[in-house]
Amino acid sequence: MFNNALSRFRAIAFMEGCSYILFGITMPLKYVWGLPKPNYIVGMCHGVLFILYMITLLTVFIELKWSLKKTALAFIASLIPFGTFYADKKIFRQ
């Protein structure tokens, strides 16, 4: 299923986007109800997934010869909530 760089990248992008959205749940838990542990766990997972996203973005850039513009848009999408989902629909599919 994940036999090429693009399919691996899309899977990691999906997981990274989901972890970003989970902050919408864990931030109120931390700052309203004083439960910091869920935010810590989601933050660690999100950090690891973000690093994997950047590594796989670099491999896709090299292997599939993506343009600098397309790669920059993929990077910017990782910084915006729901950005990776939108980018998957508009940019990542070939």
From TrEMBL:
GO terms for cellular component: plasma membrane. Residues 6-91 form the DUF3817 domain. Its main location: membrane. The keyword Transferase does not apply. Keywords: Cell membrane, Membrane, Transmembrane, Transmembrane helix. Pfam families: DUF3817. The chain crosses the membrane at residues 12-33, 40-62. It is found in: Cell membrane. PANTHER family: MEMBRANE PROTEIN, MEMBRANE PROTEIN-RELATED. NCBIfam families: integ_memb_HG. This is Integral membrane protein.
